[in-house]
Design brief:
Number of strands: 0
Distance between the termini: 19 Å
Shape: globular
Radius of gyration: 14 Å
Number of helices: 4
Length: about 90
């Protein structure tokens, strides 16, 4: 029986680090999005279209990161909802 090939989680999450603060608060406080070529306004906010596309790509990995209970709900979760489209987690 052939061995099932596993996806490289690190490759899937390339770019997640730059979006972490945006997903948490809606702002890029440290200018990290410039590293991946995303423009922000004067307040460090990317366009909603770019943020939503990034949320669909990285949202599931972001939700798996440990968070402090006092942080509250992430901004991206409030604005865009759950990152998996069908409402159910995808099988890996």
């Amino acid at each position: 029986m052939p061995v099932r090939r596993r996806e490289n989680k690190r490759r899937l999450a390339d770019g997640l680090e730059q979006w972490t603060f945006v997903f948490s608060s809606g702002h890029d406080y440290f200018g990290q999005l410039a590293e991946v070529g995303v423009e922000t306004d004067q307040y460090g906010r990317p366009s909603l279209e770019e943020a939503e596309a990034a949320w669909k790509r990285f949202g599931e990995a972001f939700m798996e990161l440990p968070r402090h209970p006092d942080e509250g709900e992430p901004w991206a979760l409030e604005v865009f909802g759950m990152p998996w489209v069908s409402g159910k987690r995808r099988r890996r």
